[in-house]
Specification:
By secondary structure, this protein is mostly helical. It has helices at residues 61-74, 86-93, 95-129, 131-139, 144-178, 190-215, 219-224. Helix 3 (95-129) runs parallel beside helix 6 (190-215) and helix 5 runs antiparallel to helix 6 (190-215).
């Protein structure tokens, strides 16, 4: 008998039910909530039963629901028959998170595309302004590799400054969102390193292509141009 309960009318100590056994912790709600103590009571009278959890294998859900509803109607209870599937309940619990996830992906893709387009446009503009400088360096014996290193080095500092500003802000925002869950994962720092590496790769490719285009031009033509 459970000793933590005392009936106020009779003074009887303990719940009037024997404990048949225990079960492992299960989470019936969202991962935002911690697992709390719970006990299941078995009643002989079905009128006291509020809800029933049923699991089955090897049968179609519609057939199972028809049989369950038939059995329920045979009990002649003054309650409407209502059912839901566990998968649907889980979907409803995390519907908001799924919407936020999809919107985050869409906005990230748009921001990434705009950033790449802006980077290419900026590189093309600055490279055009420095065509004379590139032509002079080629005449003085600079190789294409030397020119690429110099131009990429100029953008590398800007990229590193942007990453040092964006990474802590992103880490703080994600940490605040994860803190609303009772059960959550930790943020892996490798994610920021991977994002930085991808950004560096794309920047290097964009700057190198634009610089090579200007470096492959005839130096004399670049020197004859007037700005």
């Amino acid at each position: 008998e459970e000793p933590e309960y005392t009936d106020e009318e009779t003074g009887e100590v303990g719940f009037p039910f024997p404990i048949a056994g225990t079960f492992k912790d299960i989470n019936m709600f969202s991962l935002r909530e911690k697992i709390t103590p719970m006990f299941l009571t078995v009643y002989k009278d079905p009128g006291f039963v509020r809800w029933v959890s049923i699991a089955w294998e090897g049968a179609a859900p519609n057939e199972i629901m028809e049989k369950i509803e038939t059995k329920y109607n045979a009990l002649n209870l003054d309650r409407a028959f209502y059912y839901s599937y566990l998968t649907q309940n889980i979907e409803e619990l995390y519907a908001k998170e799924r919407r936020i996830g999809r919107l985050s992906i869409y906005f990230s893709l748009v921001a990434f595309a705009v950033a790449v387009i802006g980077l290419i446009a900026l590189t093309a503009f600055l490279t055009t302004l420095k065509r004379k400088e590139i032509g002079i360096r080629k005449i003085l014996g600079a190789s294409q590799l030397d020119i690429l290193k110099r131009f990429n080095r100029e953008y590398l500092w800007l990229l590193l400054i942007g990453l040092f500003i964006a990474a802590p802000l992103a880490w703080y925002g994600v940490s605040q969102w994860l803190s609303t869950f009772a059960y959550r994962i930790d943020i892996n720092p490798l994610i920021f390193l991977l994002a930085g590496a991808i950004t560096l790769l794309i920047t290097t490719i964009a700057v190198s292509l634009m610089t090579l285009r200007a470096a492959n031009a005839v130096p004399v033509q670049a020197l004859q141009e007037t700005q």
